[in-house]
Design a protein that fits this description.
This protein has about 750 residues and is of the alpha+beta class. The strands form 5 sheets. It has a 7-stranded mixed β-sheet with strand order 15-27-26-25-16-23-24, sandwiched between helices. Strands 7-6-8-14-9-12 form a 6-stranded antiparallel β-sheet, with no helix packed on it. A 6-stranded antiparallel β-sheet has the order 17-22-21-20-19-18, with helices on both faces.
């Protein structure tokens, strides 16, 4: 997905492109650090970030100084590759297919390596002194190492050419040394025997190492495939072909060819392919993909449709308004993709460790070999060789590289299942620290569209009068007019003719019915200004409704008030429950609104919020966030409008409502594609569970290396004579990767 980015350096403004590319050839965290280092050193590259878990590189570069092809060539020179191409839905699908193919390839390699390793293992462990067994093991081991394990040696060679080392280097060194040492002893067994030493072969160690590492890679590929299932499901929401109307004829075209303004035909049961508005017909559309609500929405002419939603009963035509990457579905896919490719702050430390880990291990292996050669006594060479190999094998940093990204990916996928789209990993890591949540009122706590909640009519009001009211409101441009019209429609009130319509700024409107009577619709000021009669009962009702935070509209003829309508923005059914749950967890909940103080007080009282501010400007909201941060709070801001964007940007964790403005969604780090505020405590709980998973993963990754490397080097030998066989070292290394991947996938089963 490319995006134009404005880079500002003093007075110099440069336009650069930010692209995300799939990367091939990476086998460990050291590889990702190597790729990142190479890309960042290229002229014209402003910033490059590589994620090992989903094998992608996000590169921000000046396309006037360096091209995508040059980025690709730089990585190809060291054995990696960038997959170029437009990152539309088809490209995403191709990437998923490529991941599946990679998994199938890893599966075949692992199976065949295991099949050939089994007889070598049996011969090496139980018939070690049977001479023909060596000659049987030799060709089988050669196939396992140099065919099924050839990628390790190719990768190590390419890295060595540029003075670099990675996991391939460790594997190639350890297995290569074991194989060629065994080959020498097979061809020249008397060389060591004549000098009083045993002529050991370690074919089983070399092949078992390759098999265990292949098994670890298989699990890694499976983890990557499983954790990206949310993207696969989202891509599957979009049909591959579309029926459009052209010259009066229906023709079927691929979805990629749809253009804005084209008319599309939708039949019962079909998925909506792009965003647009109905021009003819009506139907019920399942929008649970967006809203999370199971009840289908009735759509008629002029109503908006979203890609990925499902038409149910009727047929209709609609005009395409947003296509390709502009659709809401494409934005959701992009958001999930970017989130799974982003790094948590802790991952930066992990990457730095991985970058120096391999060279350090090689140095430790050399020291181990040297120390054993000096202090090893009899059979010093054999001890030195085997312990150096064990150090190289057990230290492979697979688990270290997978610790953070796999947990992040699974956490993001889990969030997507619960209508929580996480834009970057940092918000997932910070979420559990949040101890103050600020909620916008309109559209966040409330539904975001005003409705007539109560009415009070005097005895003199007739159905004709109400028909006049409907016609006046139909001509009005006031934001609340739609609520009155909707209410009267539901009541079955017919429209009456009105002439001499006039708008009275800040007070209301007036018009004349066909009977020559003038009618007024507006606030209390309008009634008072014209000295219209108002009963005590209406006055009392007006005061009560005002205290409850309702907006009250007066309807009167030229003599007296005929009735009042109480309009309010309905509170969402689960708002109070979600707020109570946050407060129960010790999180302070605040409300900010541009609405008047009376309405703000009424709403906050109904949902249980004690800290609120009314009539605030966008900058006031941002300052409120900043003030809480200065007091030591970690602040989450939840909003849905452009007026919330400044506060969202200021907050530690920003959460946008999915039905809100594009700007709010762009600024926010999380987006709720449901109107249910219960998703907020769910998101914060998911953050906590994910961070716990990351810490557990790092523990498993480091504990194997901290304990394993000294043992592999022979630390226990002077104490109890124990030496770690290279074969066991390979199993321990693979087990660390298995532990990390399994622990990450366990997040899929948690309840939030």
């Amino acid at each position: 997905m490319s995006a134009e980015v404005i880079m500002e350096n003093k007075n110099d403004r440069k336009q650069s492109t930010k692209d995300r590319f799939p990367v091939t050839g990476m086998s460990c965290a050291s590889c990702s650090a190597s790729v990142e280092s190479i890309l960042n050193q290229l002229p014209g590259v402003h910033e490059a970030s590589v994620n090992f878990a989903n094998t992608t590189a996000t590169v921000e570069f000046d396309n006037s100084l360096i091209s995508e092809q040059e980025l690709q060539a730089a990585l190809q020179a060291v054995g990696y590759d960038l997959i170029l191409g437009d990152n539309d839905s088809n490209a995403l699908e191709e990437q998923e297919d490529r991941a599946t193919q990679s998994y199938q390839k890893a599966l075949r390699k692992t199976i065949w390596a295991a099949v050939l390793t089994l007889p070598v293992f049996i011969l090496g462990m139980f018939y070690m002194h049977w001479v023909p067994g060596r000659w049987i093991s030799l060709p089988l081991s050669a196939i396992v190492l140099f065919w099924f394990g050839r990628d390790f040696f190719i990768g190590a060679y390419r890295q060595a050419k540029f003075g670099k080392a990675n996991m391939d280097t460790l594997v190639a060194l350890s297995t290569g040394i074991a194989f060629f040492f065994s080959l020498f002893n097979t061809l020249f067994p008397d060389f060591f025997i004549s000098r009083g030493f045993e002529s050991h072969v370690y074919y089983e160690a070399a092949t078992v190492i390759i098999t265990f590492i292949s098994l670890g890679k298989l699990l890694e590929e499976r983890a990557k495939s499983n954790t990206s299932s949310a993207i696969k499901k989202l891509i599957g929401l979009q049909p591959k072909t579309v029926r459009i109307v052209e010259d009066g004829m229906e023709i079927t075209i691929p979805i990629e060819q749809v253009k804005r303004g084209q008319h599309i035909v939708i039949k019962p049961g079909e998925k909506i392919p792009v965003d647009g508005s109905i021009i003819t017909g009506d139907s019920f559309v399942d929008e649970s993909m967006i809203t999370g609500e199971p009840i289908a929405v009735h759509k008629t002419v002029g109503d908006t449709l979203f890609a990925g939603t499902i038409n149910q009963k009727g047929s209709f035509r609609f005009e395409a308004e947003k296509v390709g990457q502009e659709t809401l579905l494409a934005q959701i896919i992009q958001m999930v993709q970017e989130a799974q490719g982003s790094k948590a702050p802790v991952q930066g430390l992990v990457d730095k460790i991985a970058g120096v880990f391999v060279p350090t291990v090689i140095v430790i292996a050399i020291i181990t070999f040297t120390a054993w050669m000096i202090l090893g006594g009899q059979d010093a060479f054999f001890h030195a060789l085997l312990n150096a190999i064990a150090v190289l094998v057990i230290a492979c940093p697979c688990a270290l590289g997978l610790a953070t990204p796999t947990a992040i990916m699974v956490g993001i996928g889990k969030g997507a299942e619960h209508n929580i789209l996480i834009k970057d990993a940092e918000s997932l890591e910070l979420g559990y620290k949040v101890n103050a949540v600020i909620l916008d009122k309109t559209g966040t706590i409330t539904e975001g569209h005003p409705e007539v909640q109560r009415t009070h009519w005097t005895e003199t009001a007739t159905s004709y009068d109400k028909g006049v009211l409907r016609r006046i409101e139909e001509q009005s441009e006031h934001p609340l007019a739609e609520a009155v019209i909707k209410y009267l429609e539901q009541e079955g009130t017919p429209t009456e003719e009105v002439t001499n319509f006039n708008s009275i700024t800040g007070k209301g409107v007036r018009g004349t019915g066909v009977k020559g009577v003038t009618y007024f619709v507006g606030n209390f000021k309008l009634i008072a200004e014209h000295n219209l009669e108002i009963t005590a009962e209406v006055t009392q009702t007006y005061q009560e409704w005002s205290e409850e935070g309702m907006t009250v509209i007066f309807f009167a003829n030229q003599k007296t008030v005929l009735g009042i309508l109480g309009i309010t923005d309905k509170i969402k059914p689960t708002s109070a429950k979600a707020i109570a749950l946050l407060q129960k967890r010790g999180i302070a909940v605040h409300m900010l609104t541009g609405d008047n103080a009376r309405t703000a007080a009424a709403v906050s009282k109904l949902v249980g919020i004690t800290k609120f501010q009314a009539e605030v400007m966008p900058s006031d909201k941002a300052n409120y966030v900043k003030q809480l941060q200065q007091e030591g709070y970690t602040v989450a801001m939840v909003g849905d409008g452009i007026n919330d964007s400044q506060a969202l940007a200021q907050a530690d964790v920003s959460i946008a409502m999915g039905k809100g403005s594009d700007i709010a969604i762009d600024v926010a780090k999380m987006t709720l594609i449901t109107s249910d505020l219960m998703a907020i405590p769910q998101a914060l709980k998911l953050s906590k569970k994910t961070v716990i998973g990351i810490r557990q993963n790092l523990f498993w990754a480091f504990i194997y290396n901290l304990i394993g490397i000294p043992i592999a080097a022979g630390l226990l030998y002077p104490i109890n004579g124990f030496e770690l066989d290279p074969m066991i070292a390979g199993a321990a290394m693979a087990l660390s990767s298995v532990s990390v991947v399994t622990n990450s996938l366990r997040l899929k089963q948690i309840k939030i």
